[in-house]
Amino acid sequence: LRKYQLEGLNWLMFCYLKNQGSIIADEMGLGKTVQSVSFLDQLYRKFKIRGPFLVIAPLSTIPHWEREFKGWTDMNVVVYHGGAVARDMIVDYEFYYENETREDVYKFNVLITTFEMAIAGVGHLKQIPWRVAIIDEAHRLKSKSSKITETLKMYEMDHRILATGTPLQNRIEELWALMNFLEPQVFNSEEEFIGEFGDLKRSEDVERLQGLLKPYMLRRLKEDVEKSIPVKEETIIEVELTGPQKKYYRAILEKNFNFLTKGCKGNNMPNLMNVMMELRKCCIHPYLIKGAEERINEEARVKSYDEQFNLMIQSSGKLVLLDKLLKKLKENGHKVLIFSQMTKCLDILSDYLNGKGYKYERIDGGIRGDLRQASIDRFNKDEDSFVFLLCTRAGGVGINLTSADTVIIYDSDWNPQNDLQAQARCHRIGQTKSVKIYRLLTRNTYEREMFDKASLKLGLDKAIL
């Protein structure tokens, strides 16, 4: 362990002995997983506590957790995941010893599962007296009334540890929800907490809140503790809307149904119930708007595949820029992560990469956990693998892609912490090259305004943490 990780381990042990829940809120990429695993190993070896220990983490990080336990400890680890039949089988064969009469003796020391399985398997899991529960990417519990928060409150947990690089995402209420889950006796009234800290107008209020959180939260930043990680540099690139994008953008803003539905058949019509979403789609690529691809192709009178392919590139300002950027990056031997919010945008980018003959991998919400890990391993080991397409929410947490040194944020998240999580996939321990981040924004559009508003939220995080 590195020096600061050893300090983190000692702090987790100190909180455990004080019988106080803890939030390990180190910045992404500083090894929260390895500190948590070492802590459980200390309990197992030094204090002779056999468990059971519970780890709840996002699906894409499960193989990583399993690998860390196998690499650092001798504990028996079970992954609880799958359909109802598979879960019943895990309970039958992995939970208890064959001839054991006592029900409180378990075959496993550690059980790893996902947030979704913690809800689906609540019947099996809530009756187990968990000695320690570690919730990874714990900002998933930021809503006090969400299904996962309410379900986990039914579990019997002696000691709780929350691991998240982004504990404060949008509002103070979310911070209260985390603290209430961690220490319900201390943080029992949301009204009082919001009444006291809701505004944070003065610096004294911020200092008081910092003082209140200090015993429960340990947060270190990369620049403070890990000097070996090279610098990260972000460049915002503003692109212009293309001709087709301008037409659609204006029509959506003016709710011009005649223009938008011309030539559309059946269900293939844009939905103007959510104007903001349609504007975002237009800024990313007009083909995301229903019926637009057919119409743009028709108006341009394209016949061959090559003409169609070039028109797809020329229709979006961002794709025009990406086309030039990737060519340069490929020539200079870089590896690239491209993040987008929308899987349909990843579909367009997949078509583009296939057309150009660039070798790529992809992770989005529809890809199974074992296949995700295989993609990550291929990308990190294969020299020819050039681009990794990732959905910001599905591929932005907990995975390690340090073989890449360039990140392109194709479209920004309304929550800036998700983009920071995404950047940390390659800007973390193990990175040897300086990391370049290119954020693509369309000039003078709703997207630019959204990015400016989202940037203000980062101020709240900086001030309190």
TrEMBL record:
<feature type="domain" description="Helicase C-terminal">
    <location>
        <begin position="321"/>
        <end position="465"/>
    </location>
</feature>
<keyword id="KW-0378">Hydrolase</keyword>
<dbReference type="GO" id="GO:0042393">
    <property type="term" value="F:histone binding"/>
</dbReference>
<dbReference type="GO" id="GO:0010468">
    <property type="term" value="P:regulation of gene expression"/>
</dbReference>
<dbReference type="InterPro" id="IPR027417">
    <property type="entry name" value="P-loop_NTPase"/>
</dbReference>
<dbReference type="InterPro" id="IPR014001">
    <property type="entry name" value="Helicase_ATP-bd"/>
</dbReference>
<keyword id="KW-0677">Repeat</keyword>
<keyword id="KW-0547">Nucleotide-binding</keyword>
<dbReference type="GO" id="GO:0003682">
    <property type="term" value="F:chromatin binding"/>
</dbReference>
<feature type="domain" description="Helicase ATP-binding">
    <location>
        <begin position="13"/>
        <end position="185"/>
    </location>
</feature>
<protein>
    <submittedName>
        <fullName>Uncharacterized protein</fullName>
    </submittedName>
</protein>
<keyword id="KW-0539">Nucleus</keyword>
<dbReference type="GO" id="GO:0016887">
    <property type="term" value="F:ATP hydrolysis activity"/>
</dbReference>
<dbReference type="InterPro" id="IPR038718">
    <property type="entry name" value="SNF2-like_sf"/>
</dbReference>
<dbReference type="GO" id="GO:0000785">
    <property type="term" value="C:chromatin"/>
</dbReference>
<dbReference type="InterPro" id="IPR001650">
    <property type="entry name" value="Helicase_C-like"/>
</dbReference>
<dbReference type="InterPro" id="IPR049730">
    <property type="entry name" value="SNF2/RAD54-like_C"/>
</dbReference>
<dbReference type="InterPro" id="IPR000330">
    <property type="entry name" value="SNF2_N"/>
</dbReference>
<dbReference type="Pfam" id="PF00176">
    <property type="entry name" value="SNF2-rel_dom"/>
</dbReference>
<dbReference type="GO" id="GO:0005634">
    <property type="term" value="C:nucleus"/>
</dbReference>
<dbReference type="GO" id="GO:0005524">
    <property type="term" value="F:ATP binding"/>
</dbReference>
<keyword id="KW-0067">ATP-binding</keyword>
<dbReference type="GO" id="GO:0003677">
    <property type="term" value="F:DNA binding"/>
</dbReference>
<dbReference type="GO" id="GO:0140658">
    <property type="term" value="F:ATP-dependent chromatin remodeler activity"/>
</dbReference>
<dbReference type="Pfam" id="PF00271">
    <property type="entry name" value="Helicase_C"/>
</dbReference>
